Amino acid sequence: MLAVGVAILTGMVAMSLWLVQVNNRYSQETAELRRVRAAILDVVTSMQDIETGQRGYLLTNNVEYLGPYEDAMSRLPERRSRLMDLLKDRDQYRQPLSDMTSAIDNKLAETRETIELQRAGRITEAVEVVRENDGKRFMNEIRTVLSKLQSDTDDRLRIIVGDQLGAANRLQLVTIGGAFAILIVVGGSILLVFTYIRALNRSRDDVDELNRHLEERVEERTRDLRRANQEIQRFAYIVTHDLRAPLVNIMGFLAEFDTSLKPVTAYILADGKTPSEEVIREARLAVEEDIPEAISFIRSSTRKMDQLINAILKISRDGQRKLQPEKVDIETLLSSLSETVRHQINANGGEINVDTSKLTVYTDRISLDQILGNLFDNAVKYQMPGRPLRLTARAYPAGRGAISIAVSDNGRGIGEQDLERIFELFRRAGNQDQPGEGIGLAHVRSLIRNLGGDIRVESELGKGSTFTLLLPSDLRKVTKEGEQ
């Protein structure tokens, strides 16, 4: 705005200078025309004085009339020369001025002749010269030329005066516009200054706020570290406990396997002797029941260990993957994910709704997609039998620099005692009628914390659950702070 105002003001200043120059040009031309008009009147006056002195002297024979005549005769050359100089560059007047010069010369010759005759006492001859009307004809020619010059000059003066008034009015408008432009520029400058001052004050307040809450942030980071340490300890306990259980089973069944092999060994290594009925019975029992059972349990335990190890590796890989912040439209993402489960929900008469305004965040799209996809899949998996599923995903701002995404359902719900337990690795709550290893929500919490956020749950057994994600709106700032 300030730049536009300065540009407008510069344009108005340039316009003002141009109009001033135009006005000066008009003023110069007006002054020149007024000099031409004065020169014309001077020549007309001189010729009229000459003619008046001539007639007075001829009629009265009084030499006093020759005073104005001689005075006009003495001034006429200079006045005529000035008029010729003023009009010499105007080609349209070249011929009229030549005719006027001839007429003036002829009139002056006629005038001098009559006066000389009068002085010599030849009054009758002088009167005869006048009666020939040559002098009158010369004066008429002079008056015609001078009248035409004066008329042209007056017409041009009227045009110039009109143009000069128009230029003056335009200059006045430009001046007024320039005043408004100055007010706008000054006002804009003041506004920018105050805006800048307010921004500085806000920045100072933000710095003060950061300083005031520095201890809180340090305490918060300490709590996060303590919580992470507790989770590591809990994770280590869970891993060692859950991995140790199948390992103990394997060791126990290997011992049983070893015990079951003794009668079989005795039967096989009888060295041609007929084994006793008891040995045969124990060998048969070992081959038909004990050994297959031990092998089955060992296989089951090793499978369980493999699942646990794979789950641990999966979470470990997620923690090591480099996050790629990008612009993500939350409404588009939720709508896309809802379509992946809509057919399963609609098949049982349920419905899924996405309720969000236009929100965008900079985050890792893959991680957020996995988090929300897991929550949607859990809602479908653990819906209440016999009740159509109602699933709602809602996103909304959650204060400065954060958003919340709430995923609500009317499924089985979670008991109060299990609200925190469900986020632990290899832990499940409620009726275990669905396949799973107990790593889904632990994986979700690991992913959301990698994004600088957190997850909480509100649930009532038999009525449904609401999982709420708290997510920073710009992961780039979070990762930058982490690097620092």
Helix and strand topology:
Layout: H1 2-60, H2 66-87, H3 94-119, H4 123-131, H5 134-212, H6 214-268, H7 277-320, E1 325-329, H8 330-347, E2 351-356, E3 360-364, H9 365-381, E4 390-397, E5 402-409, H10 440-450, E6 454-460, E7 464-472, H11 475-483
Parallel strand pairs: 2-4
Antiparallel strand pairs: 1-3, 4-5, 5-7, 6-7
Helix pairs in contact: 1-2, 1-3, 1-5, 3-4, 3-5, 6-7, 7-10, 8-9, 9-10
Report on this structure.
By secondary structure, the protein is an alpha+beta fold. Helices cover 72% and strands 10% of the residues. It contains eleven helices and seven strands. It has a five-stranded mixed sheet with strand order 2-4-5-7-6, with helices on one face. A hairpin with a 4-residue loop joins strand 4 and strand 5 (402-409). Helix 3 packs antiparallel against helix 4 (123-131), helix 7 runs parallel beside helix 10 (440-450) and helix 8 (330-347) runs parallel beside helix 9 (365-381). The two termini are 39 Å apart. The mean pLDDT is 78.
Structural class, please?
alpha+beta
Task: Summarize the helix and strand pattern as letters.
Answer: HHHHHHHEHEEHEEHEEH
- Ranges where pLDDT stays below 50 over 5 or more residues in a row are none
* Number of separate strands: 7
The share of residues in helices is: over 70%
Sheet having the most strands: 5 strands, mixed
Please tally the helical runs, counting DSSP H or I stretches of 4 or more residues.
11
Average pLDDT metric: 78
Cα distance spanning the termini: 39 Å
Q: What spatial form do the alpha-carbon principal axes imply?
A: rod-shaped
Strands of the biggest beta sheet: in what spatial order? 2-4-5-7-6
What oligomeric assembly is this protein in? single chain
As a whole number of angstroms, the C-alpha radius of gyration is 58 Å
Beta-strand content: 5-15%
